[in-house]
Amino acid sequence: MPHTPTRSSASLRRLTPGPGSGPAVLCFPHAGGCASFFRSWPSLLPAARVDAVQYPGREDRVAEDHPGSLLDLAASVAEEILGTGERYSVLFGHSMGAYVAFEVAHRLEQAGAPVPALVISSAAAPAERPAVPFEDTADVLAYLEQYEPVSPEIRAEPDLLEMILDYIKGDLRLVARYTEHSDKRLTARVTAVAGEQDVPGIREHVTRWSRHTAGDFTSLTVPGGHFYLREEPPVELLRAALDRTRREAP
Predict the structure, then answer these.
(1) What's the CATH number for 6-125+181-245?
(2) Of the four, 1, 42, 65, 157, which is 20 to 30 A from 236 by CA?
(3) What is the tens place of the pLDDT at every residue in 121-148?
């Protein structure tokens, strides 16, 4: 049975039971996603500790307001990591989470606490990302249809649909207005992965992430669509990243 996430700061959730040991992975969910999206991952990565970021406006932070910008969100997460003294071997960001993870990695590097590896999942390089609607409900629902349609059960519950769309729209607004990326490069190793059935605007532009690192860059295509990781989490990729970090540690 998956472990109930425990809170170590406003944003950071410990998914691995107990204190955990070995290298650590920090996971950033997609727009509308929650830390619990990754709750099964500790059993898939028993040699590592798995944490996840909980964005404001959902689950145990449902009463909190959305951040003003994606940079504000990344800054708060980076400050919490630095404040708690956590050290992560890999940051993993899926879809919107890729942009948040990239900005967190950049801030940690600027603070003298660089993360060795960043894994980008299902996200076009920032300058090439497809247009993102965030105001009109019909436009947002049509946009979501490309990636993961809202279920008929949720659509049948207007109050629930409105609540869910409220924080999805807030997340999409963060992505749509994210422009502060053009001159940012990391020293971290970056791996960018996309599903072979993902939308062309993402699948064809993951390789452009190479512009954002001075370290090694790898681009991978895997079976599946935008949410390929529901059926096949990228466990081997993460194990390889963790093993390399362990070998290279002083």
Answers:
(1) 3.40.50.1820
(2) 1
(3) 999 999 998 888 898 888 999 999 888 8
